[in-house]
Structure formats: structure tokens, C-alpha cells
Fold this protein.
Amino acid sequence: MNVTAEPGTGHGRVLLPWRSILLVVVAIAAYAVFGAAPGAWVFDRAEVAQGEWWRLLSGHWVHSDTAHAAWDIAALLIIGAIFESRLRWRLPVILIFVTVGVDTWLWWGDPDLRYYCGLSGILNGLLIVGLVYLWRDTRHPVALLTGIAAVLKIALEITSGQSLITQTAWPSVPSAHAAGILSGMVFVIGAWISGYIRKRLRNTWPARTARWFKLTSATLRT
């Protein structure tokens, strides 16, 4: 949660990470209603090829067992609580972007993978974007060290072929976690390029001329 001061007062107010809480509720509801590894909702390559495209989205929000759900939902809540105040409206946009990135990897990058489920892939993308924004705003070494640790963890998992922390009914897919981080970095680079272009456009001759006329008009009225 984020605590901010009300303008003109010395009192603070608590800003709940309502977007993250809503997403947590969705994930809990999905597990409560559909149970573990629901056949109609997990990523199933054969069924996606037959036109069940919704699995590309729903597969990230269902889980293989209770432990899998608990780990992922807790991570979603923690990451959201820490970073939502910085990411704000970008949070759902990031999740959508990273979902597309992870799905792209699942489909073309790992064609032998038949089944997949869980939030962990897209959460790695959200984590890395949040850490970049935290580093940008604070230059706090914890952001940098956490990012390095996340990358090293995934590298070790890819090397060993299994998760270092969790043991769930379905085997971990570390390459999907790496795809999440790479997708998050692509989002950050794209956001930086977009901001740079907007800044350059604001400094073009028409924009400068418009600002000059606006300033001159305001001066003449005073």
C-alpha cells in the first residue's frame, strides 16, 4: 500500500492497490470455481490449434494445484502492493503486453510444450518493469539487486530444468519466466522510446510557435 499526504494538510491517506486486489480476487475465484488444472482453461497446444484461443489468456489465470495457486497469487499481491502506486494505469497494460510476449514464446519458442498454466511467467515481466520504475525514481540498490537475483534465479532454473523454490503438480517452465522478463524489458524500452518521441515532438517548430503565441497572448491580456 502507498501512503500519501493530502494537499494542504499534514494527514496521510492510504491508497489501496485496488487494481492488484481485483486481479487477486479474479485469480482466487478462478481456482475456487474451476479447481486445479481445469481442462477447458489451461494452455493446451492442440486445443488452441483447433481454435480455442481463449486458453492463451485463461491459461495464465488457472493453476495446477493449491500450492501453485498460493505461490502465484501471493506473488501477485506483493508485487502489486509494492509497485502499483508507481505503475498505476500501466499495470494492466503491462500484464496484457507480457501475456502476449509469453504466449508468443509458448507457441513459437517452445513448440514441444503441450500444456502450461499459472501466473508466474507474466509476473516476472511485471516484476522487472516495477523494478525499473523503482530504480528510475529512487536509484535504490535494492531494485538493482532484486532484478539481478531474479535473472540469476531463472538462469539457474533453465540450466537445472526445474524450479529452485516451488514444487507443484505440473513441472515448472523456466523459459516462460525468462520470456516474461524479456517481454517486460521490451515494454520498458518501448515506453522510453515513446516518451523520447513525444518529447521531441513537443520541441518541434509548430509546438514552439504555438507556445510562443499562447505566452504572448497571455502577456497582452495582463
In short: DSSP finds nine helices and four strands in the chain.
